[in-house]
Write a structure and sequence with these properties.
This protein is α/β, with parallel strands linked by helices. The chain is built from 23 helices and 17 strands. The protein folds into three domains: 194 residues, no CATH class; 229 residues, Rossmann fold; 94 residues, no CATH class. Helix 8 links the parallel strand 8 and strand 9. The relative contact order is 0.09.
């Protein structure tokens, strides 16, 4: 049986049709599409909160189904049902809540698998730190999309573990798996075959670009602090234009956060690279996202911010057969081989310890997240002269462009195609299943201890608030509200019927009342024995509800006199 995972589904994690197109959404949509197209399992599982979301999930994956397969809804109000799939895939590294929830039942019931995207935000860093103290197991995993991001995650975990050791006297171990599996691309969508030249001519004509001119392409969010500052690219392009005297068009395919930034991008292009024709197109449009690659000769992305972790667009450019110029930064360092698939441009970052003021400001809410990463990015350098030299080399050497582009296309197909990546996911999920069958439980639940100490049973945490608790020795009799008419009044009033779905059914309640009426008074123990097929916890809770509204009454001698 091929191992698959239940997909934790919320539209925001897998949808690219919104006005704010984010990298994690593009990656999530690509992953889900690829899992449906290339996954070997005969069924799919959707773990979500409502039938409406499940229907939306089914509609989303339907166009990608290449063969009939069963799709099963696993409602998220019943986490034990995840044992049917054996693993839950959550498109995020914050897994602690899932782990605590699982601890209320069988911790071997299923594995939990997450994935990294941006890890610079405080929320994600807190979530990564929680991996050390939450009951995650050796059969759980956070997939790291690059060696760079794995190193960052391990640094966070190790630094936090050292603090906990100093604070508590014990250093927690990292039990969760941290495998490296890159994001993927569908290489077939970038290979237009005989139509490539037609697409190239069509897009260039629409943008007013002569067919023989050089087009340099950037794809991504047009945000100076969250992706790549445009001015180093502008300056490098201007140097290349001056040196080569070539007519260069710089196409920036993306979207702006706001009008102020849009105006600054456009004004900056006129100031810093006046010799280059800069063209801005909306990268959220599907026809742009799929076709713009064919219009380009060179791809450039000089990412310079700590929010970046992998970098999907250089892989897409490689799949399209374009030579790439990228900053020597994060995941780009692994995906682009220098002088083989493209050129990596040196970067400089301030010494460790130089940004403590930024950390303090962010932690204290004096800086919001955007300001935190913006101030950081303004101190990170990409070598403009080296970028200019790379541009000049590729602009003046069409054979080199072709050679690097062909190498990149082959690398994308061999390593980053979704067929390869999905196979790696399925292999990982199978390995986690095997570990789950044999590995010892980390921090096993002790008898009588709460599964989640900071979210315990309220009747245990606050047991001392009441005069007494519902001992099974309590004797119950009928109260004044037990008549059919008064009982119906309670059932019809929203305020007194609240929570009915968590109590026993009306049929069961009526049977309990009949049994008590026949005997006059009955102990809770006797009632439990009379209804052995009903959950004792739910039945006792239901009895206390009936006592609350005087449908039943506890004999005074049981409560004690005050």
């Amino acid at each position: 049986m091929n191992q698959t995972a239940a997909i934790y589904y919320k539209k925001d994690g897998y949808d690219t049709s919104g006005t704010r197109l984010l990298g994690r959404q593009a990656a999530g949509e690509g992953f889900l599409k690829a899992l449906v197209q290339y996954g070997k399992a005969d069924s799919f599982y959707c773990y979500t909160s409502s039938k409406g979301e499940f229907a939306e999930f089914c509609d989303r994956i339907k166009p990608w189904m290449t063969r009939p397969r069963k799709v099963t809804w696993l409602p998220s109000n019943n986490h034990q049902i995840l044992a049917q799939a054996g693993i839950i895939y959550h498109p995020d590294p914050r897994l602690s809540q899932l782990a605590w929830t699982r601890r209320f039942d069988n911790q071997r019931g299923y594995s939990i698998c997450g994935v990294t995207h941006t890890i610079a935000s405080m929320g994600v860093m807190d979530g990564i730190g929680d991996l050390l103290i939450a009951p995650l197991q050796p059969w759980d995993a956070v997939i790291c999309t690059s060696v760079a991001v794995k190193n960052a995650v391990e640094r966070l975990l190790n630094t936090w573990a050292e603090y906990l050791a100093q604070r508590t006297g014990g250093k927690p171990q990292i039990d969760i798996q941290l495998p490296i599996i890159p994001l993927g691309v569908d290489c077939d969508t970038f290979n237009h075959g005989d139509h490539t030249q037609n697409i190239r001519r069509s897009i260039r004509q629409a943008l007013g670009i002569p067919q023989d001119d050089i087009v340099v392409l950037f794809v991504g969010r047009l945000c100076f602090y969250a992706k790549a500052h445009p001015v180093p690219m502008y300056l490098a392009l201007e140097k290349a234009a001056q040196a080569t005297q070539a007519k260069i068009h710089f196409v920036l395919a993306g979207w702006f956060e706001d009008d102020r930034e849009k105006a600054s991008f456009i004004q900056g292009s006129q100031i810093f690279c006046p010799s280059v024709n800069c063209i801005f197109v909306d990268g959220r449009k599907p026809e742009i996202r799929t076709g713009i690659w064919s219009a380009a000769d060179i791809f450039i992305s000089l990412a310079d911010n700590v929010q970046e972790t992998f970098g999907l667009t250089p892989i897409e450019a490689m799949a399209a057969g374009l030579p790439v110029i990228v900053s020597d930064w994060d995941g780009y360092q692994e995906s682009v081989r220098h002088e083989i698939d493209g050129l990596r441009i040196p970067t400089i970052m301030p010494q460790p310890g130089s940004g403590l003021d930024l950390a303090s400001g962010y932690l204290s809410n004096n800086l919001n997240y955007s300001s935190y990463i913006a101030y950081s990015s303004m101190a990170i350098v990409v070598d403009i002269d080296a970028a200019a030299r790379g541009l000049i080399e590729l602009i003046t050497n069409s054979e080199l462009r072709k050679h690097l582009g062909e190498n990149g296309r082959q690398r994308a197909k061999e390593i980053y195609d979704w067929r390869v990546v999905i196979a790696a996911y399925e292999n990982l999920w199978q390995e986690l299943a095997e570990i789950r069958a044999t590995a010892p439980i980390s921090v096993p639940l002790q008898p009588g201890s709460p599964p989640a100490p900071l979210c315990d049973d309220p009747f245990r945490v606050f047991a001392h608030y009441s005069s007494t608790t519902s001992s099974q020795d309590l004797v119950l009799g009928l109260g004044t509200m037990s008549t059919p008419e008064r009982l119906q009044q309670i059932r019809q009033n929203w305020m007194t019927n609240y929570g009915a779905e968590r109590r026993n059914t009306t049929l069961t309640i009526d049977a309990v009342l009949a049994a008590i009426a026949q005997n006059g008074t009955v102990s809770i123990t006797t009632i439990l024995n009379q209804f052995p097929n009903i959950s004792p916890t739910q039945l006792v809770s239901t009895l206390m509800y009936l006592v609350k509204f005087d449908v039943l009454r506890v004999k005074a001698s049981n409560l004690g006199e005050r």
